[in-house]
Design brief:
Blueprint lengths: L1 H14 L10 H33 L10 H4 E4 L2 E4 L1 H32 L3 H15 L3 H16 L3 H27 L2 H9 L4 H31 L11 H12 L2 H31 L3
Antiparallel strand pairs: 1-2
């Protein structure tokens, strides 16, 4: 055993691992991991792009990448004029941002209702969850746009926002409820023992411990919301997918447009994933 121990430094040097240390900064490690995930996504996207290019070549499709510049922007008399894709991505960001905030609020209220001792609160929350989670999103969108929007005088943008918020809020509710229930029961008892009110107990004891558990699945939910926002194109909301469809109908450049639209969605979702991963590491860092 002593001989093996004495040979360890030599083996480490031979294998080239001498002096290797694990990164001490968890943020740097998380950033490196996130960058590797982005690289994997880019590689996968490149492989898919090559396959589609090969298929287009077999179809004798003539690529027209030289025409895509004005789809992003134009400079006329020194003035910057955004193109349809830039306008579409701005509307997508607005749609996703507002829907995300509303879905988290709806999810939090529904989770509170599910966890409350009120029979009416639990019944309302459970009914909402069962209806929303067991009906297709497209059907819900038509209900919001063709039924509720005319009654309340809501335009198509807000009909899409409310539909997405209601749909994603049902999943956010279960994520939040699961995170709260995952906190050990001893923490609840400790809050009661210190004389905290129910609100303060959740505010200072339960929620801070539940948040690191809630954040990862909630990130996936927000990424899904960005992708699901494309469905509002069926009610002609001028977001990214709608603008892409309009460009395809005008130019017949289906391959180029869908490549660009897919790439823009990829940039949005991966950027959000990286930012939330960094936030998660900072929240879990010991203080």
């Amino acid at each position: 055993m002593t001989q093996i121990h004495n040979k360890m430094p030599f083996l480490a040097k031979l294998l080239g691992v001498e002096g290797v240390r694990h990164p001490r900064d968890p943020v740097s490690a998380q950033v490196a991991r996130s960058l590797w995930q982005i690289a994997q996504a880019i590689i996968l996207f490149a492989v898919i792009a090559w396959l589609i290019h090969a298929g287009a070549a077999a179809m004798e499709y003539r690529w027209q990448w030289y025409r895509v510049g004005p789809f992003f922007y134009r400079i006329i008399d020194g003035e910057f004029i955004p193109g349809p894709l830039i306008k579409g991505i701005i509307v997508t960001l607005e749609l996703a941002a507002i829907s995300s905030v509303l879905s988290i609020l709806i999810g939090a209220l529904t989770a509170i209702g599910r966890l409350s001792s009120s029979i009416a609160g639990r019944a309302i929350a459970t009914t909402y969850l069962e209806i929303i989670r067991n009906t297709p999103l497209l059907v819900q969108l038509f209900m919001f746009y063709f039924v509720l929007a005319p009654i309340f005088g809501i335009d198509r943008f807000w009909a899409g926002v409310l539909c997405l918020a209601a749909f994603e809020g049902s999943f956010a509710a279960e994520i939040i409820r699961g995170g709260i229930q995952a906190v050990e029961r001893g923490q609840y008892e400790a809050g009661d023992a210190t004389g905290l009110s129910k609100f303060d107990k959740y505010r200072y004891v339960i929620v801070p411990q539940a948040l690191p558990l809630i954040l990862p699945p909630l990130t996936g939910l927000l990424i899904s919301l960005i992708k699901h926002s494309a469905i509002v194109s069926v009610i002609a909301v001028a977001e990214l997918t709608t603008e892409g469809l309009n460009l395809i109908s005008d130019t017949y450049m289906a391959f180029e447009i869908w490549f660009i639209v897919a790439g823009m969605y990829l940039v949005l979702t991966t950027s959000l994933s990286v930012l939330v991963n960094i936030l998660e590491v900072k929240m879990n860092r010991p203080r």
